[in-house]
Design brief:
- The protein is mostly beta strands.
- Helices cover 5% and strands 40% of the residues.
- It is rod-shaped.
Amino acid sequence: MKNKLMISKLFTMFLLLSLIVVPLTTALGNDNDGDFIDDDIDNCPYNSNMNQANTDWHDLNNNNQLDVGEDALGDVCDDNMADPVITTEDQTVDEEVTLEFTALANNGGDAVFADTLFLTVEGNLPAGMTTQDVTTNDAQKLQTKKFTWKPTKTQGGQNYQLTLTATDGPIQDGDAAKVVKKTITIAVKDTIKDQPQPVNHQPVADFVYSPLNPKAFTEVQFTEKASDADGDELTYAWDFENDGSVDSTEKNPTYKFTTFGEHQVKLTVTEKNTAEHLSASVVKTISITQLELVNGIEITSLQCFENVIVGKEQVCGIKVKDLKTNKPVVGAVVSLLFDDSKNKIGECTTDINGGCAVEYIADKIGTFTKHYLTFHRN
């Protein structure tokens, strides 16, 4: 009997002790980020992430830590919110092909009492890349950015780094603001091979003339024989005295030489419609001989004052020889004419040395070509 009474008393004491211990029992629960959850009713930070499955919530309106359920259990507080998480991967794209990808940031699962989330890009984007905020869910603390980029050919074969930053701020959950960075690499493949650029070939200048043994004061026909490997249209510049002055821009001109001897003729051809306007020149020496005049007489020398003043005397001298004997001709009559051989200035008769001079008063301003006609009195 005593034993039964003792057991009953012990059981009663156990129940009393149980009632006393229960209010002091620490109520632990599982939080989202897996860290320690304490039971401190007086020190739970405002807006802490309460474990709803094991305890009641804070009285948020009054900014205190009341156990509104009055269940004698301490409030369960998560004093360490989870870090933000950035979800995206490295990218690979061909040049001149559009790339689209997204980057997602969230608060690591602590969505209810987490701070507002910000997802930003550090530094400058690669040239041509654009971004767009496509998802901003403040209730779930999610933010998604969409990236669009079509790399150019010059960006091919290069790697570009993009650094993303997720920040849970401003501070509302009692924790310090958390900042997470993630750097991804975007590789642009060099898939477009450089195409060989067309080469613009330089033209080749050439010409022929006829007759092959031209005489002074007779017409010489010049014919271009230029070529261009690309078939480009050409322009022509003829310099019949090779003195730097263009005498004709015709394709196939004619020209009269008024003095005998060697003359250097220059032809320059230039591409007409190309960006480079490549050109080429050729110079050929042409031997001009004297006219064979009456009775086989040839003029061997023609000389006048190069410059004379209007109203002053001009003197032009001449020498002739016999083509058969190659000796000076005595008594040959020489007529001096202006330009077109119709305006006679004067005449003279050759002496024993085969020479004579025509004198006249210059009465015009300008440049004139003199012609001589020679014939023998006999």
